[in-house]
């Protein structure tokens, strides 16, 4: 079953004339979202987010859900100047560029997940970094999107988060630890000494699971919870139990502030900008 989680739209938006705008799409086994950027004014003017209530445990169910959304959402029936796509899954690994060999993609990902001979692997070279993200995309969804838009660029969610956070916080004087919260999982990113020190995805079900992964990672990296700055982004509020748990064990905890290079229509709240950080910074 599909549930629309949020619908944001500029009041005066003419949905029939979006051909000069950019469309960003993001999806995982648990949901699908997209946003529209007015390229002329560098302003986000629409965002829709859908949850898949039943887990998509097969490519067929995932494509059925996304196809249904395209059949019913008016914004997805329009023509756009450009389209970009983000795949969210844990079928990836990060490789130092000096060690990267394009002929060994399957070997890299097999360290973290089961890889089958028929799996199609691709990679992103992260901007201004000696890092390559190797991943298995949802090929059936890419094929579906080709039928809809003819051409689009796609990347892994790890690329979006690392590039954007490092671009802003690379020269921070204190280590920064980021938790990008989603439904049932979170990405943990550590930036210190002008470099990415750590990136991984963790599945969790309780606040105790969450803080264990955070503190264990900090211990392995020899980071002092009294000194590093911990920032939440994604689906999180100060009133959430997860925030309170982090604050119990870490001295400096806060919500990520919006530092986007783009503007936002007044329909977007500060919470929206933080919740949908990855898709709003995809393009």
Automatic annotation (TrEMBL):
This is DUF3822 family protein. Pfam families: DUF3822. It comes from the Bacteria.
């Amino acid at each position: 079953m599909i549930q629309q989680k949020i619908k944001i739209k500029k009041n005066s938006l003419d949905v029939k004339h979006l051909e000069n705008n950019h469309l960003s799409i993001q999806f995982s086994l648990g949901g699908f979202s997209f946003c529209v950027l007015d390229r002329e004014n560098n302003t986000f003017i629409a965002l829709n987010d859908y949850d898949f209530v039943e887990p998509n445990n097969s490519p067929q169910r995932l494509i059925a859900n996304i196809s249904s959304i395209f059949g019913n959402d008016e914004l997805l029936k329009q023509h756009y100047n450009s389209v970009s796509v983000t795949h969210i899954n844990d079928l990836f690994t990060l490789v130092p560029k000096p060690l990267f060999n394009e002929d060994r993609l399957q070997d890299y990902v097999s360290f973290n997940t089961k890889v089958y001979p028929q799996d199609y692997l691709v990679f992103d070279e992260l901007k201004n970094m000696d890092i390559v993200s190797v991943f298995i995309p949802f090929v059936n969804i890419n094929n579906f999107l080709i039928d809809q838009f003819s051409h689009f660029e796609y990347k892994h969610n790890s690329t979006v988060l690392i590039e954007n956070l490092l671009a802003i916080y690379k020269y921070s004087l204190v280590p920064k630890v980021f938790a990008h919260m989603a439904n049932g999982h979170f990405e943990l990113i550590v930036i210190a000494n002008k470099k990415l020190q750590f990136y991984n995805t963790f599945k969790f079900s309780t606040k105790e699971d969450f803080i264990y992964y955070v503190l264990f990672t900090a211990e392995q990296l020899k980071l002092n919870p009294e000194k590093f700055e911990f920032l939440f982004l994604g689906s999180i509020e100060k009133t959430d139990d997860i925030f309170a748990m982090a604050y119990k064990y870490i001295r400096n905890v806060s919500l990520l502030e919006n530092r986007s290079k783009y503007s936002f229509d007044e329909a977007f709240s500060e919470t929206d900008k933080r919740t949908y950080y990855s898709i709003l910074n995809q393009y």
